[in-house]
Specification:
Radius of gyration: 20 Å
Structural class: alpha/beta
CATH class: Alpha Beta
Helix content: 25-40%
Shape: globular
Oligomer: single chain
Distance between the termini: 88 Å
Largest sheet: 9 strands, mixed
Strand content: 15-25%
Length: 300
């Protein structure tokens, strides 16, 4: 009987340790899905500078705690440098017509899961299509958003399959395209970055998105190894940065940013700063793409 009590105690301790580990790595909502939606909007500062950036990192899916903190630090530094207004929140009730009207750009900083209710989604859609701008980082392109069809079709344009495991973080060669795009200013045509690389069923190029960077799949091992299984994650055409023009609005997504250290890399910081400069500018080109004069020159 005494032995049984010790066995039960050990089992409880192991279970508690396992749950603690799940929470620490950000996977709690994967085991216990959260569909809670905020109903009371946060109070915005009266003196919010313009252009203004809404930094949103609600996680009803996997929580990239380290990446969220690193992204927030990097974007705060950029806002300080350029004099942008910045409001950082995880409260989805800020997605209403009046509050969104005070912002020029919304950033999904590793935001994940079922974050917004139907009314909040509709408010964001109307704001973006009416001339707003959006920047999505890493988890903004995973499968936790699959229930929001407009988001999938207009901001991501692809269906997430998996990320590499074996190892989880690998250095790969990033290859730029459309180098004349404002988001790619002063970036090298090729550069190296270590990341938890995502894959999708097919490239968003097929749906008309503007591809800005792809991966050289020969430069890393694009597989997911779990237990005794191994899944080939090669896409052939493997974008990791892309943009889109949505109504009068514009968007950019980057798959980089799982860990805080990603935001310390010069190329990633340059990309994010360029993207925000483009998205906050009243008229910085990029939508439509290619520009009319470039398209005419190609046709001629």
């Amino acid at each position: 009987m005494k032995l049984l009590r010790w066995v039960l105690l050990l089992a409880l301790l192991l279970a508690a340790a396992g749950l603690l580990l799940v929470w620490q790595v950000g996977a709690w909502n994967l085991l216990f899905p959260n569909h809670s939606h905020d109903t009371v909007a946060p109070e915005l500062p009266a003196d919010l500078a313009s252009p203004a950036v809404l930094l949103f990192s609600k996680t009803n899916g996997f929580r990239h705690k380290d990446g969220i903190e690193g992204g927030a630090r990097a974007i705060q530094a950029m806002a300080d440098k350029h004099g942008w207004g910045l409001f950082n929140t995880e409260n989805g009730a800020v997605f209403n017509r009046d509050d969104l009207a005070r912002f020029d750009v919304v950033v999904f900083n590793n935001a994940s899961g079922d974050m917004l209710d139907a009314g909040q989604e509709q408010a964001f859609q109307a704001w973006l299509e009416g001339g707003g701008a959006w920047l999505g980082i890493h988890a903004a392109g995973d499968d936790s958003h699959s229930g929001w069809q407009w988001y999938r079709d207009n901001l991501i344009g692809a269906d997430f399959t998996a990320h590499i495991m074996g190892p989880q973080f690998q250095r790969a060669t990033v290859v730029l395209e459309n180098q004349a795009h404002p988001a790619l200013r002063d970036l090298p045509d090729l550069w190296q970055h270590e990341e938890e690389w995502y894959s999708w069923e097919r490239s968003p190029r097929a749906e008309g998105f503007i591809i800005l960077a792809t991966l050289d799949e020969e430069s890393y091992n694009p597989v997911q190894k779990l237990w005794r299984s191994e899944v080939d994650l090669r896409m052939g055409d493997h974008p990791v940065v892309w943009a889109n023009c949505v109504g009068a609005g514009r968007t950019l997504y980057t798959a980089m940013g799982h860990r805080a250290q990603a935001f310390e890399q010069p190329q990633v910081r340059r990309l994010l700063e360029n993207a925000l400069l483009w998205l906050t500018a009243a008229d910085a080109g990029g939508c439509p793409w290619p520009p009319a004069e470039t398209a005419a020159a190609r046709a001629g």
